[in-house]
Amino acid sequence: AVPAGCPAHTSSAAVPPAPELFTWEFATDPYPAYAWLREHSPVHRTTLPSGVEAWLVTRYADARQALADSRLSKNPAHHAEPAHAKGKTGIPGERKAELMTHLLNIDPPDHTRLRRLVSKAFTPRRIAQFAPRVQELTDRLIDGFVEKGEADLIHEFAFPLPIYAICDLLGVPREDQDDFRDWAGMMIRHGGGPRGGVARSVKKMRAYLLELIHRKREDLGDDLISGLIRASDHGEHLTENEAAAMAFILLFAGFETTVNLIGNGVHTLLNHPAERERLQRALAAGDSELLATGVEELLRYDGPVELATWRFATEPLTIGGQRVAEGDPVLVVLAAADRDPERFAGPDTLDLSRSDNQHLGYGHGIHYCLGAPLARLEGQAALATLLTRLPDLRLAGESGDLRWRGGLIMRGLRTLPVEFTPG
Ligand code: HEM
């Protein structure tokens, strides 16, 4: 018999068993597991598939605080056990590589200097001027499959759109953009780890970017790479390596995220016919308000970035009442925080006109997504154009049969087969 009041007994009787993380079921629908964690183990120690031990932060209030906590470093040098998995931790930047000293792997004061420099080139004005080009790309991609009456929206639409957009913005000549498409495809297929084909793709991309920066330096243009070369802060410029790492992170951070914003967004809308019809009616009436709030809600409801990128404790600290040791990795689970009932009313309901929607889909604090205005532009153009040009768009097959990528940081579909009346 178990003694009355035994804490182990009372808690195990009251609490349903802990869910298994990182399985197929979890990759398909992680939200029930996140609800359990928020409720029963909000700052949860787990062993990741790579073997690395890390804390998962799942409540909104803790997540927001952790994202802005300067005691949590982005620099993988602060990881207590970098040798633990002999360099196979899957933590980008843990193995020395020039392109990896970018914004998401550094802290102030370096981060402050680099972010200030890139912000001078990557301005909201530049993005706004880019809107007609994004619309043209969106229409051209839809033209490519509209006659067929069917398409895989990931491969034929969500995947090429952001890569061509960011290449155009950076100033990669059109004739070289298919190489970028192939390199990026290699990275997304293999989950971004620096292995085999991925390592080769990163190497090729780096060599290409350094060469391009060289050429632009001789002949400055109106593009973002020229802007990066021109940008100066108190007379200081980016070095060539810093400019290449910056171009790389813009490509890398702006690519798979946007693929998944479009993929997850269309998938969610097709599974919520009433909300989708509401949006189609608003678009037909020329009202773009619901499109703007709707894309934010799609980010909150099933966003592209499931976990924020790595952070490491630089000193012992407490998160949500849990002691975290110096050197421990901390992963902020944006997807869990954005469904927290303490912060969002009816968090599991999709409401395209949700107000008071301060989701964490773009992060928070000094690493807040630099590309958010571009992501919004692409996401809004993609969804509005698809729903307007293919009004009877529907899934070809069952939603439950779709396969999710199951990576650690990102959440996204491998394929999204759809049908529609050919146009
Ligand atoms: C940072 C999300 C699109 C460039 C971030 C972070 C998140 C995020 C969550 C913070 C990560 C952290 O703190 O660990 C998204 C989502 C996108 C998107 C959901 C699409 C829907 C883009 C695009 C670009 C971009 C299109 C650029 C072309 C960046 C950069 C950073 C960043 C450079 C690092 C900023 C810094 O460390 O100061 N993004 N992103 N993102 N994002 Fe995005």
Automatic annotation (TrEMBL):
- What superkingdom does the record give? Bacteria
Record Pfam families: p450
Renumbered residue ranges of the record's region Disordered: 72-92
> Which InterPro entries did the record assign?
Cyt_P450, Cyt_P450_B, Cyt_P450_sf
Tell me its family.
Answer: Belongs to the cytochrome P450 family.
Q: What is this protein called?
A: Cytochrome P450
